[in-house]
Amino acid sequence: MAKRIDTYFVDDLTDERDESVKERVISLDSRRVVIDLGDDSYAELEEKLAPYFAAGRSGRAAAAATPRQATRATPGVKTVEPTTSEVRAWAKRRRIKVAARGRVPAALREQYIADHMNAA
Question: Which keywords fit this entry according to its UniProt record (predicted)?
């Protein structure tokens, strides 16, 4: 007997299978969500947000508005990432071992983000 497990990607909005589906992070104020979107749904989102991006500030003005948070460039999506010190403090409060210096492991950063997404 053979067992076959298929993994496929589904667009969260259309509920359709699509090979172009990717995980997208959307952040507004203190609310942050992760959504799986195909190219068509993502293009629709970009089209709807275009006037807001056109009217908004970018670069130094946007960075000055959020001094405690760093941004990571993602094509078409602006995400806000927690600082290393925020992740370390969070881990310390939860008694999770983390080095005092150096790079914070990606898995720990993801735990921090997931914890804060659930709180929002």
Answer: DNA-binding
For residue 110, give both structure tokens: 């993801």
List C-alpha distances in Å: 110 to 105, 114, 118: 9, 6, 12
Region for 41 from its dihedrals, namely left if φ exceeds 0, alpha if ψ lies in -120 to 50, beta otherwise: alpha
Amino acid letter for position 120: A
pLDDT digits (tens, 9 = 90+) for 43-88: 999 999 888 888 887 655 555 555 454 445 555 555 567 888 889 9
Contact assessment for residue 85 and residue 102, using Cβ atoms and an 8 Å cutoff: no
Which CATH code for domain 82-120? 4.10.320.10
CATH T-level fold of 1-80: Wheat Germ Agglutinin (Isolectin 2); domain 1 (3.30.60)
Question: Which pair of structure tokens corresponds to residue 65?
Answer: 């508005």
| Cβ proximity of 11 and 41 under 8 Å | yes
Instruction: Tell if the pTM clears 0.85, that is, is over it.
Output: no
> Hey, how many other C-beta atoms are within 10 angstroms of the C-beta on 84?
15
How far from each other are the two terminal CA atoms of the chain, in whole angstroms?
46
